[in-house]
Amino acid sequence: MSDHPLRIAIVGAGGISRRHRAAILAQPESATLVSVCDARPDAAQTLASSLTDPASTFGDHRVMIDAGGFDAAIIAVPHILHFDVAKDFVEAGIPVLVEKPLTCTLDETRALRELSARNDTPVVAGQTQRFNREGFWLRNWVQQEPPGFGSLRSFDIHSWQNLPAYLQGTLGLPPGADHWLLDGQRAGGGAVISIAVHQIDLVRFITGRNYSEVMATGRYDPPFYNGAESSAVVLFRMDDGSSGALHANYLAVRTPYNEAMHLFGEHGTIVQHAERIGQYHGPLFYSSDGGEPATAWADMYQGFTTLPEDEMTGLSPDPFTNQLASFVQAIRAGTEPANTVTENFNTMACIDAIYESLRTGQPATVATA
């Protein structure tokens, strides 16, 4: 590829696309936004016209593909459209970064994996929390030789939001208005696939382990419909025999924080939760016994510290910027990008198994192929 910035197209001009646009603008030497597509012409124009050099706008991604003039695309449309839109770009030989969740079903994930291989065209799952600089540091710490963290033993993750409050207070929708996130058919499910997917995937990234079996129970309270769960509690078994639990809630009318994580290893612990009411998620702390057995009750509370800032200076505080930089670098170098559809498969297979368990009330095995 030339030394010019990689030309990026964005499909979907909703709120998350502004984060992707900001990531592009943060690295002008590497990437430039040249095309925007949205079925709503005003939304596409708003996203495109805010640039120094306004991007071309389209109302149909297939017309955008035919027009060309870009090297890669970011797909940020409602979940139900992820597969169909990504398919058209991959068949045209255009690398894509697809917002989470990669697809709505595991069969779609399998089909997209096959298309990517057949067309030798990268498909990246937009799991941005993999690109938090803290996550990179913890992954290295957890997977180094013991006695830092050691082998994973158990974990606990939380994903809580009040979605109706977001729809009304942030998006400005009137009370009772419909939105595709409330619809299990258009979103692929409810709280698990829309918000808990972040924490589910982050556990895999940090620990290097995959999910093997789940058991789930949940509720389906309005305004969610068409099989979208308003809340779910899930038990996990990992491929190394460790276990964990998830509590996801999309109707948390009051919540002290929105995301939290606790990872317990043979020698160490990772903790993340809010320090004050209203903080989305707090800083990450870690501690290790250094391989020395505890000799007093108070030992279990010792050694917790925040991650070393001086060891994370090579990455941006913004995960969207890090994600785009990784994507662009791989395309330029002709190498496999981080978090391809193949790497993301176990995350999507785990979510598929959770929905099977929710339907049947029985444990479900996580597919391996």
What characteristics describe this protein?
alpha/beta; 9-stranded mixed β-sheet; 11 helices; 2 domains; 369 residues; Dihydrodipicolinate Reductase, domain 2; Rossmann fold; single chain
Portion in helices: 25-40%
Please work out how many helical segments DSSP would assign. 11
CATH topology of the largest domain, anyone?
A: Dihydrodipicolinate Reductase, domain 2
Task: Name the helix and strand elements from N-terminus to C-terminus, one letter apiece.
Answer: EHEHEHEHEHEHEHHHEEEEEEEHHE
CATH top level of the largest domain is Alpha Beta
Number of strands: 15
Calculate the terminal CA-CA distance, rounded to whole Å: 34 Å
Indicate the low-confidence ranges by residue numbers. Answer: none
Question: What structural class should be given to the helix and strand makeup?
Answer: alpha/beta
Gross CATH architecture of the largest domain? 2-Layer Sandwich
What is the CA-based Rg, rounded?
Answer: 21 Å
Query: What kind of sheet is the major sheet?
Result: 9 strands, mixed
The protein's oligomeric status is single chain
**Shape call:** globular
User: How many structural domains in the coordinates?
Assistant: 2
| CATH homology superfamily of the largest domain | Dihydrodipicolinate Reductase, domain 2
Question: Please, what is the average pLDDT?
Answer: 95
| Neighbour order of strands in the largest sheet | 14-13-12-11-7-10-9-8-15
